[in-house]
Design goal:
Layout lengths: L16 H27 L3 H9 L2 H21 L10 H31 L4 E3 L2 E4 L7 H36 L3 H6 L9
Antiparallel strand pairs: 1-2
Helix pairs in contact: 1-2, 1-3, 3-4, 4-5
Length: 193
């Protein structure tokens, strides 16, 4: 039987409320980041793009995504012995590698952008509040990694997301193994303990 306290934590049959909230918060932040970016690329300066940019300034969302991902990684580590098991074999290994790649990209991409912002001599601003003052001068080595990789890694992240969604749908529609239900909060047919 699931108790109210157990709803927060992961169990072998389902992901707990904290894991699910962090997962869907990450998804919302990434969708907004790419939504704003694609809107600017597609429409340029337009009332809709300006509204999206006010709701989700790219730098602020990136910093928030970094914090969310770090919290998510800490929570996943603390829950590692309680979580639903990965499928056995190659499928489980691929799922584990995919999730590790997600964490790596969701940390590296915004961290490099923050480093670049500081290296350019600009302050780190979070929804209008200055979190880190500007540097006194440009620092080339801080800008180089993001200049080289930020965009490429972001598109790689988007490709992984498309694959992740496709596999979630495959588990739901073809394999019917309950994996997606565990992230939606519906435990598997076995009883929670």
């Amino acid at each position: 039987m699931t108790t109210p306290a157990n709803r927060w934590r992961d169990t072998p049959n389902r992901y707990g409320l904290v894991s699910r909230l962090l997962h869907w918060l990450t998804a919302a932040q990434v969708i907004l980041l790419f939504g704003v970016l694609l809107a600017w690329k597609g429409f340029g300066e337009h009332p809709v793009t300006l509204l999206l940019a006010r709701i989700g300034p790219h730098g602020s969302l990136g910093a928030m995504l970094l914090v969310t991902t770090l919290l998510r990684a800490i929570w996943a580590y603390r829950q590692r012995h309680h979580r639903p098991p990965r499928p056995p074999g190659l499928g489980g290994l691929l799922a584990r590698c995919m999730h590790l790649a997600f964490y790596a990209l969701l940390i590296l991409i915004p961290a490099m952008a923050i480093l670049r912002q500081y290296g350019r001599g600009g302050p780190l601003i979070f929804y209008g509040k200055e979190l880190m003052p500007e540097a006194e001068r440009e620092i080339a080595w801080m800008m180089a990694p993001a200049d080289l990789l930020h965009s490429t890694l972001a598109w790689l992240l988007l490709a992984l997301i498309v694959g992740h969604v496709a596999m979630a749908l495959a588990h739901r529609l073809w394999l019917k193994d309950g994996i997606l239900a565990r992230m939606l909060g519906n435990p598997s047919p076995q009883q929670d303990t």
